[in-house]
Amino acid sequence: MTTPDTGRVYHVLLQIAVISGVLGIWEISGRVGLLNPLFFPIPSVIFLTFFTMMMSGEISEHLSITLFRVFMGFLLGTIPGIIIGMVMGASNKVRLLLDPIVSATYPIPKLAIFPLLMVIFGIGEFSKIIAIALGCFFLALINSMAGVRNINKVYFDVAKNYGASRKQVFTKVMLPASLPMIFAGIRLALGTSLLVVVGLEFVSANKGVGALIWYAWETFEIEKLYVGIFICAILGIISTVALKKAEEYIVPWVGQLAHKIERQ
Hints:
Layout: H1 4-31, H2 43-56, H3 58-90, H4 92-105, H5 114-121, H6 125-149, H7 153-161, H8 166-203, H9 209-218, H10 222-250, H11 252-263
């Protein structure tokens, strides 16, 4: 019988093997002429370009700006989204009041309202941060609301029978039970923030990973274009792993339950 740690190591090694295999096939196909190097440069050339850009400081310059926008927009949108979502999940009156507004504004593409945000907040950083925040806000809100609404009412009845106060109901019942869904919303919000920031940097930025990709396309520097795409992929992987670790630490019972199910 394999232990949880052994299973994790096996999954990590399997993922590394798959990625290495894809890169190896790509490298060989490019070197034997099966892929056009003009559109599909081999990985070794892309890695060399990445190293050169890293040494020159070009990557750190673009990456630092993108991370600042993502971090600020993520915090500005996710925290209010979690709070309002939990309130909507706990209160039918608040949910009935705000649900039509959420339903009407959530489907609107955030890039579509970016020109309006630039009119209101100007063409500087703040309008970009607000657009990212809006993309995070609704995902955090919807998942937090669903997390509260999916809590079995028996838990609330038991807490009331034992004389729990509202604060105790929130800290001992509502928050712990809804944390898995809240973390799901946080993961979605962080992924969306990366998508939105790159799109915004395509159309309204001179610096940032999105601007790097767009400028590489305009100048037909295909290696730099791939470097920008790989940076986005790396950011996505790092953010996913970091949030999973945070979830395992804050909500350990979810992982324990999953391991029990796997053993059965």
